[in-house]
Amino acid sequence: MARIAVIGGGFGGMAAAARLAKLGHDVTLLEQGARLGGALDTVEADGFSWDAGPSMTLLPAVIRDLFRKSGRPLEKEIDLVARDEVREHWFADGSTVTLRGGSRGVQYDAFEELGAGLGQQWCDHVAGFADDWEVVRREYLERPWRPEIAGKEVVDRLQSRTMLARRLKKELRDERLRLVSGHPFFMDGHDLRNVPAWMGVHAYVEQNFGAWTVPGGMARLAGALADRLATRRVTVELETAVTDVVVRNGRAVAVATGAGEVDADTVVCAVDPRRIPILAPYVVKTMPAIPPYVVHLGLDGDVPDLGPETVFHGDPTIVVRTGGTAPEGCHAWTLLGRGHLSEDMVLALSRMGVNVRGNVVSRVDRTPRAQVAGLGSSPLGVLWQGRDTLRHRLGTRTPVAGVYAAGANATPGSGLPWVGLSASLVAQEIGPA
Question: Contact at 8 Å (CB) between 102 and 82?
C-alpha cells in the first residue's frame, strides 16, 4: 500500500483519489478551499441557483466507468440523463440551427434546413474525424502516452502542422458551419488557428454520444463523488494550501503545506502546476485558457422560450443557458460572453433580439479574474498555442519522479470527459497497491 497525496479537490483530483483508493492505496486529498468539487459548484442568490461551471457533459461512459471502478455504479447514486439539444445557434443573418446529439440523421436534417447541401457538407465533415477519434482515443486518451513507443498513426495526428481553422475552411464552405464546429474552442478562449485539427473530434463526439446532464445541477456530481471518497476512506483535508512538493534524492517524498509536511510515496498534482514551485519550470512555455465573462440572471414574468443552451454569434458572442432553478413564475439564466464586451451583456443580448432587461430581479456577475481567483487557477486548463502545446504542458507522468498530473492542465482540453480520462490514466500509471 502506497501513501498517495492528491493536490486539488476538483473533479480531476477527486476522480484520481477515488480510483487510487479503490486500488488499495492510502490516499490523502488536499484542497485549499472550504469545499470539494472545483468548478462543479452552484451559485445561489435570492432564491435562484445556477451551475457555476459546466451544465452538461459529453461521453457519459467516462463518468460511469469512474463510479463503477471505484465502487457502486453511477445509477445507484445520481441520474445522468441525455439532453435532447446540445445547443442552438443563432447567426447574425437571422438564421438558426438546432444541434442535437446522438444522431447523424437528425443533424443532417437540421443543417439541410439551414441551406440545401449543408446537411451533407456537415455530416461529411464530422465523419472525417471518425478515424482521428478511434486512433487518438485508443492510443492517447485511454492509455498512458509513451512518445518513444507510440505508433506512427497517432504520432502523425498529434504532431500534424494542420490547425483546426485551416481544416474548417477547407471542408466547410459556409461560415455558419465553421462557427458551429469551432464554437466549443472559441468559448474556451482558444484561437482556432492555434488548435490542432485533430481536436475537431469534439464534433464527432457530440454527434455520436450526445450531451448529458444531471437533474438538479451538475454540482450533484461533485456531491456524489465526495460521498464516494468517504466510502473509500480517503482522508480529505480542506482549507489546506499546498506550497510545494518535497523532493529528496531525486524523488517526491512529501507535500509541503502551511501546516507542515504530508508524507507521501507518490503525489498527484490535480491543480495548475504553476502553483507548485517544483513543477512550474516545466510549464513556463504554456499559458492558461481564460474563462469567459459570466452573468447569472434571475428573471420574473414572461421571457423568450429558449432551449438549454443558445449561442448568439457576433461580436460579442453570447451563450445563454437556461437550466438553473428558480422560484415559481421565475427563470434562472446564465450568460457567457466572449469578444468585445464593451457594453453590458444584458443590453448586448437585447440587441440580438432577446430583451429581458425588464425581467431582471437578481443578478450575479463573475469576471474571468474572479473565477480564476476563486478556484486558484483557470478551470479551462492550458491555452492551445499550436501543436507544441502537447509537449510544453505536463502529461500524466511528470519529469519529477513520483509525481503524476491529472485535471484540466494535464489533458488536451477542458470538460469532464477529458479530466475524467486523465484520472484514469493516473490510476493506470500508479497501478494497484
Answer: yes
Tens of pLDDT, residue by residue over 185-207, are 999 999 999 999 999 999 999 99
Q: What is the pTM of this model?
A: 0.95
Tell me, what's the pLDDT at 148? 82
Q: What's CA 300's distance to the chain center, in Å?
A: 31
pLDDT (tens digit per residue) in 139-176: 999 999 888 888 899 999 999 999 999 999 999 999 99
Helix (H), strand (E) at residue 44: strand 42-45
Contacts of 134 (CB under 8 A, 6+ apart): none
Q: What is the pLDDT of residue 363?
A: 98
| Cell numbers for 148 | 518513444
Backbone phi, psi, residue 269, to 5°:
-95, 110
* Own/partner pairs, 384-391, CB within 8 angstroms, 24+ separation: 384/185, 384/190, 384/191, 384/194, 384/195, 384/196, 384/199, 384/289, 385/194, 385/286, 385/287, 386/163, 386/194, 386/196, 387/158, 387/159, 387/160, 387/161, 387/196, 388/285, 389/194, 389/286, 390/158, 390/196
Measure CA 15 to chain center. Answer: 14
Element (H, E) at 267: strand 266-269
Give the Å distances, CA to CA, from 425 to 16, 61, 297, 386, 429: 9, 15, 38, 24, 6
d(CA 335, CA 321): 6
* Packing angle, helices 11-22 and 219-231, rounded to 10: 30
